[in-house]
Amino acid sequence: MPSTCWTTPSAVLTTQMDPARLLNNTCTTARVGVIVLGVGHSGTSTISCELRRLGLVFRGRTRMCEDAGVVELNERIARRLNLHRRRVDNFSDIERFVNANPHPSTWFEMDARRLVSRLPVPFVLKDPRFVWTLHYWTPLFKTLPMLMHVTRAPREILRSHVARREMVTSADVRTRQLWDAWQLSQWPGCAVSFSINDLSTRVSRSNTHGQRHR
What we know:
By secondary structure, the protein is an alpha/beta fold. It has helices at 9-12, 19-25, 44-53, 68-80, 91-100, 106-117, 130-137, 154-163, 170-186, 201-204; strands at residues 33-37, 62-63, 66-67, 123-126, 146-151, 191-195. The two termini are 27 Å apart.
C-alpha cells in the first residue's frame, strides 16, 4: 500500500491547483522524477507536457509526451500477455492474473533496468500501458519517484476515443480503469491522485500539441 505521504484529492486540490503546486507541496520524491499513471484519454498527456514545461525531463524520443523506449517495452508485454483484449471485473481477477504472471520476461527486465538507469533527474515517464505494467517497473527503481495519478469520467474517456474513431468499448474503459485503480493501490511510494477536470483552465490548455486529453 502507499506510504504515509499518500495524498487524497480533497487534501491537496483546489480549483486553482496545478502540477507545479502539486510538486512543491506534496512529495519530496518528485525531485527524483514523476510517473504519470492513468488510462488513455484521461489527461495524462496534458499533465506530462505541463511537467516538462516546469522543468522535468523526458529521456529520449517522445510522442504524445511518451518515452518511445517505455512505450515499446510496455507494448511488447501487453501483447505477450494479451492485455489489450483481456477483461477483468474486479481486483480479484487482476490479482489472479498477476499471481499467474509474477515476473516479466528476462528481456523486459534487462531492457527496462537499463532504461531506468539512464533516466535524467528529475524525469517524467508517462504511458497509458502503465495501467497494466507498472508493478513490473516498480522494483527497478532504487529510489521511487512520485506517482501522479490522473482520472477522468468513463463517459468522457469513451467520447474521446469515439471522436478519434478508435475502436474502444465501454467494457475496455472499465477494464483499464480497474487496472489503473489496482496499480495505484499497489504503489509503495508517494502518490497523489486527482481528476483532470479539477485542474485549472491554464493547465488544461498547456502545450499538448493539439491533444487536450489523453
